[in-house]
Specification:
Oligomer: heterodimer
Order of helices and strands of chain B: HEHEHEHEHEEEEEHEEH
Helix content of chain B: 25-40%
Largest interface: A-B, 40 and 51 residues
CATH topology of chain B: Glutaconate Coenzyme A-transferase
Largest sheet of chain B: 8 strands, mixed
Largest sheet of chain A: 10 strands, mixed
Strand content of chain A: 15-25%
Number of strands of chain A: 13
CATH topology of chain A: Glutaconate Coenzyme A-transferase
Shape of chain B: globular
Strand content of chain B: 25-35%
Structural class of chain B: alpha/beta
CATH superfamily of chain B: Glutaconate Coenzyme A-transferase
Chain lengths: ~220, ~240
């Protein structure tokens, strides 16, 4: 089972971002999408803590701890960027102004339910902006490994962990494929190189169907 | 003559009472009024409810307030952190209550309190554990959750610059919750790096107008959380 590397997954998701899109990237793997936005497109990154036009990590020695991303790492501001308070920042999310958010996931169900905030066990929980994004972004994408470290499917018939949002996810980018939650199954959009249909199905906890062909005119 | 400038952080938090609800600005290090929180520890008020995005980092500021046993309840969106060990310990041993709130709902509950809105409906958290026990209602075919305003007795916030009236300007992403919390508390105390002459702040650039601010304290060189965390990490590594 080969498939895409983490960087290739991020690049594959970035390739689907449209010129002019306002995009929020979740903490962790989704942050890497920023590094792969095609150079012919202007994509404006939003950070929940009050930044539009977020740029890459600054050079060493140029860090500013008043200019950090959602993961509290130092970032930069691109030309045209802006700062604003938290209510405005979440009005952008909750008011459906953010075109795309890319989130990590513990589990995604074929009906689009997402679990990514609580492992359901003890320990300190934390939700941050995940539920606001799952309900508010115009399009919610998930970027995740296809299975857990133990090899269990993350794409399932029903989520077993506490929900972040219901019927929230529109597209999923994994190391094996690009898929779309289609209700009772996942619809395959693209198979990663080196991954075949049987491998994909064996590692997915719900039926997978081929992409519906466009109707003949 | 109006002069909201206090001579010290201690003077600015002198009347915080036991059981008060304290709104504390900041997201990570940015915008955290560490010196005001330290003055609150010295002041001695107990049984506090604290509203912040996080639940303290390292062993300064909010984390130190929690560690001193002054806080009964934390209302926040993301208590987990790389250095949240003080909160983690209190939470695991049942010594502190946690109300976990989605970040946008937290911001909007504070904003609503400042704008005279007692409650509002939002789709955020519908169908999840964080909506359990809350009133829900359908609007436009979607389930919405009723969330209540979150006012404070005191707001402790950090800004970059103030004048003696209390007009505030912030710096970069350190603005975060400051403008909302300033609106939502009966007494708002702003810690600022610089106090300037009245008229020196461009009216077009004022972010928090003076009406929302009661007290101003100049702290020119505040504690840097990153330095403190680096020291903690070095001590733990050795």
């Amino acid at each position: 089972m080969t498939g895409w590397t983490s960087d290739q997954m991020a690049a594959r998701a970035a390739a689907d971002l449209e010129d002019g899109a306002f995009v929020n990237l979740g903490i962790g793997l989704p942050e890497r999408v920023a590094d792969f936005v095609p150079s012919d497109r202007e994509v404006i990154l939003h950070s929940e803590n009050g930044i539009l036009g977020m740029g890459p990590r600054p050079e060493a020695g140029h860090e500013d701890f008043d200019l950090i991303n959602a993961g509290k790492k130092c970032v930069s501001l691109n030309r045209g960027g802006a700062f604003f308070h938290h209510a405005d920042s979440f009005a952008m999310i909750r008011g459906r102004h953010i075109d795309v958010c890319v989130l990590g996931a513990y589990e995604v169900a074929c009906n689009g339910d997402l679990a990514n905030w609580s492992t359901g066990q003890g320990g300190t929980p934390g939700v941050g902006g995940a539920m606001d994004l799952a309900n508010g972004a115009r399009s919610v994408w998930v970027l995740t490994m296809h299975t857990t470290r133990e090899g269990r499917p993350k794409l399932m018939r029903e989520i077993s962990l506490p929900a972040t949002g219901r019927a929230a996810v529109q597209r999923i980018y994994t190391n094996l494929a690009v898929l779309r939650p289609a209700g009772k199954s996942f619809e395959l959009i693209e198979l990663a190189p080196g991954c075949d249909w049987d491998t994909l199905c064996a590692h997915t906890g719900a039926p997978v169907v081929a992409q519906a062909r466009p109707a003949h005119r | 003559m109006i002069n909201k400038q206090c001579s010290s952080a201690a003077e600015a938090v002198r009347d915080v009472f036991d059981g008060a609800v304290i709104l504390i600005s900041g997201f990570g290090e940015a915008g955290n009024p560490t010196e005001l929180v330290h003055a609150l520890i010295d002041q001695g008020a107990r049984e506090l409810t604290v509203v912040n995005n996080n639940a303290g980092n390292g062993e300064i500021g909010l984390a130190r307030l929690l560690g001193a046993g002054r806080v009964r309840k934390v209302i926040c969106s993301f208590p987990k952190g790389s250095h949240s060990h003080i909160f983690d310990r209190l939470y695991r041993s049942g010594k502190i209550e946690l109300e976990l709130v989605p970040q946008g709902t937290l911001a909007e509950r504070i904003r609503a309190a400042g704008a005279g809105i007692p409650a509002f409906f939002t789709p955020t958290a519908a169908g999840t554990e964080l909506a359990s026990g809350k009133e829900v209602r359908e609007f436009n075919g979607r389930t919405h959750v009723l969330e209540r305003a979150l006012p404070g007795d005191f707001a402790l916030i950090k800004a970059e610059r103030a004048d003696r009236w209390g007009n505030l300007v912030y710096r970069k992403a350190a603005r975060n919750f400051g403008p909302l919390m300033a609106m939502a508390a009966r007494v708002t105390v702003a810690q600022v790096r610089q106090v300037v002459e009245l008229g020196a702040i461009d009216p077009e650039a004022v972010v928090t107008p003076s009406i929302f601010v009661n007290r101003v304290v100049g702290i020119a060189d505040p504690i840097r959380e990153r330095d403190h965390l680096a020291q903690l990490d070095a001590a733990n590594a050795s």
